[in-house]
Design goal:
This protein is mainly alpha-helical. The protein folds into three domains: 174 residues, Glutaredoxin; 309 residues, Na+/H+ antiporter like domain (Na+/H+ antiporter like fold, Up-down Bundle), CATH 1.20.1530; 50 residues. Helix content is 63%, strand content 5%. The strands form two sheets. Strands 1-3-2-4-5 form a five-stranded mixed β-sheet. Strands 6-7 form a two-stranded antiparallel ribbon. The longest helix has 31 residues.
Length: 622
């Protein structure tokens, strides 16, 4: 989900190189660059890549270790499977790469007679070659290689992996050389991308920063930490400026980007994923209501006097930390469960906003509701008009954020509104885009060949066709992504590794130096703690169970009962809105107690939920 890797994160090779099975050219050294190529001997694009590999080999020498893995695409290249079997049969006689080179250097078409002739030219035992070519053993080996390719996400040829990470860069010599030689800046960038691709990375960063904030708030640096987080930051012209503390800017401002990513993911799941079914989409909403009602009732059991005003405090779920804990568990967590938690937390936040509006009306300025309505109307109108440019939505989002803040609503919800309003686009038909890109590249290729025939080196960038070709190629690549997808790819890494850690650092720095001697303080602490650790999961489970039994909702696909219970426990991680409601409900001393209860309850709920989810599902869990 949003705190894990995004769609642009690099794809890692699942099947490690095995010299005993793989076809490996040269012996790896400590400084080797290992390139695994899933290729098809008859694929025209694989054949065009061969001279590039020759030049790279001349540049890198023995440092370049090449591993060939077959992925014959018979429908596109008839005879590709037979060619793959021929290379494997040659490999049985220790001459795989001799056959590999002969096939790639031979002109198409290549059929059985050409394969037999190539085998004879490299000196194979012909009887054995023909026998192996048609054997079930060789056929099964090629089929296993194709299955392995699909397991590694290969869908076309050539697909290259460099040191275990899929190479998605350009296939020209200079781009590939930079990717393989790995200058310092490229190594840093690649290492960062690999770290970002790990399912647990963003969650671990968020949790580590949260621990760091707690340490700061309870150390000799506590005064410095509090001074920084409480500092007023003024933005805007004099007389009309917005003045918020550092903590508020991070919670309302930067967190909008996180809500944007979450909103886009939920929208995608509603369109054709885990929430596409109406009953599946209704489950998080009903569960969220149960997760608000029962914690409030439990708080009231402990607080019957003046402290009862704090009942809304344990009702808010922190979407960022809940998803972070799910991210730490990596592929143990099915996508349906992540989507359920994200959707539940968004509904939970909306309920918390409504609670603040009703219970603490002094925090609201209804006059600004007109501005909010105007911004919402403008964003909806742009969506309806299919405005695909990004900047109008940026301006509309800024206006909506300011209006929501002045209204008294948690302005981070601007991200969810933008996610709804940014238009999508139907997936393009590939044929016209292929024709457009091929035309542009063919024009450049023609100019290059003409220059070489004339005995000179072509300077394509100075040719009149260059700018036209670049515009067409840019248009085709841009059309592949909708505006929503482009924004998600641009914002997701910043959300995961900048926005959320800064938010965590500001939100979790709660001091333990609190006086708990009075009965009221003890009741507030107990009510908040029990509301999060018991009320939240029990409320979610009870509401979900009743709705499922009544046939109103559907249980998430691919999710076990134990996993659902674990996710319900994770929803007991308290939100920054809980801290805001503590300030609204109590004087500073009582509010500090409630915040300590939020922190303690969140830690316990997170630990319990993570422990329940950690064990992989078994048949008994279903």
């Amino acid at each position: 989900m949003a705190v894990a890797n995004d769609g642009s994160a690099p794809v890692r090779l699942r099947t490690e190189v095995d010299p005993a099975r793989d076809h490996v050219r040269d012996v790896p050294r400590d400084d080797s660059v290992i390139v695994v190529g899933y290729q098809d001997f008859l694929c025209p694009y694989c054949r065009r890549l061969r001279p590039i590999f020759r030049r790279l080999r001349e540049t890198l020498g023995d440092r370049l270790v090449y591993v060939y893995r077959p992925f014959p695409i018979e429908r596109a290249n008839p005879g590709a499977e037979l060619a793959a079997r021929a290379a494997e049969a040659a490999g049985r006689q220790g001459k795989f790469f001799e056959m590999h080179d002969r096939l790639f250097d031979r002109d198409l078409p290549i059929g059985r007679p050409e394969l037999v002739e190539s085998a004879r030219e490299i000196g194979l035992d012909m009887d054995r070659f023909v026998r192996d070519l048609d054997s079930d053993d060789v056929r099964a080996r090629v089929e296993a290689d194709v299955a392995d390719a699909r397991d590694n996400g290969v869908s076309g040829t050539p697909t290259l992996f460099v040191d275990g990470v899929r190479y998605d860069g350009a296939w020209d010599y200079h781009s590939m050389r930079e990717g393989l030689e790995r200058p310092f800046a490229a190594r840093v960038n690649r290492s960062a991308r690999v770290f970002a691709s790990l399912p647990t990375s963003a969650g671990l960063v968020l949790l580590l920063v949260a621990v760091l904030a707690i340490v700061f708030a309870n150390s000799p640096l506590a005064a410095v930490y509090d001074r920084i987080m409480s500092a007023d930051i003024v933005v805007g012209p004099a007389g009309h400026a917005l003045s918020l503390t550092t903590r508020d800017w991070l919670a309302e401002g930067l967190l909008s980007f996180f809500f944007l990513i979450v909103g886009l993911e939920i929208r995608r799941e509603l369109a054709g994923g885990a929430l596409a079914n109406r009953k599946a989409a209704l489950l998080p909403a009903i569960a969220a209501v149960g997760g608000v009602v029962l914690p409030a009732l439990i708080f009231l059991l402990f607080n019957q006097g003046a402290t009862r005003a704090g009942w809304p405090i344990p009702t808010a779920t922190d979407i960022a930390f809940s998803l972070a804990l799910l991210a730490v568990l990596g592929d143990r967590i099915p996508i349906g469960l992540r989507v359920f938690v994200a959707a539940l937390a968004v509904v939970d936040d909306l309920l918390s906003i409504a609670t603040i509006a009703i219970v603490f009306p002094g925090a609201f300025a209804p006059l600004y509701g007109v501005a909010v309505a105007a911004c919402l109307g403008g964003l909806a109108a742009m969506n309806r008009a299919r405005v695909y440019a990004t900047w109008p939505y940026v301006l509309g989002g800024i206006g909506l954020w300011i209006s929501l803040h002045l209204l008294g609503v948690h302005a981070a919800l601007t991200g969810v509104v933008l996610a709804v309003c940014i238009p999508g686009r139907p997936a393009p038909s590939p044929a016209p885009l292929l024709a457009q890109a091929a035309t542009a590249l063919s024009a450049l290729d023609h100019v290059d060949k003409e220059a070489r025939r004339a005995g000179r080196e072509a300077n394509l960038e100075s040719e009149p066709v260059w700018e036209w070709a670049v515009r067409n190629l840019s248009a085709t690549s841009e059309r592949l992504l909708s505006p929503a997808e482009r924004i998600e790819r641009a914002v997701a890494p910043w959300s995961a590794f900048v926005v959320l850690p800064l938010f965590a650092f500001s939100a979790t720095g709660v001091s333990f130096a609190i006086d708990l001697s009075s009965p009221d303080a003890q009741h507030v602490l107990a009510g908040t703690f029990a509301g999060l650790t018991l009320g939240k999961p029990l409320g979610i489970l009870a509401a979900s169970g009743l709705a499922i039994a009544a046939g109103l909702v559907a249980f998430p696909d691919g999710v076990t009962r134990r996993q659902f219970v674990g996710a319900a426990c994770l929803c007991g991680v308290g939100d920054t809105l809980a801290l805001l409601m503590a300030d609204r409900a109590f004087a500073p001393s009582a509010a500090a107690v409630a915040k300590l209860g939020v922190l303690a309850g969140s830690i316990v709920a997170g630990v319990i939920g993570t422990a329940v989810l950690y064990r992989r599902p078994s048949r008994l869990d279903r």
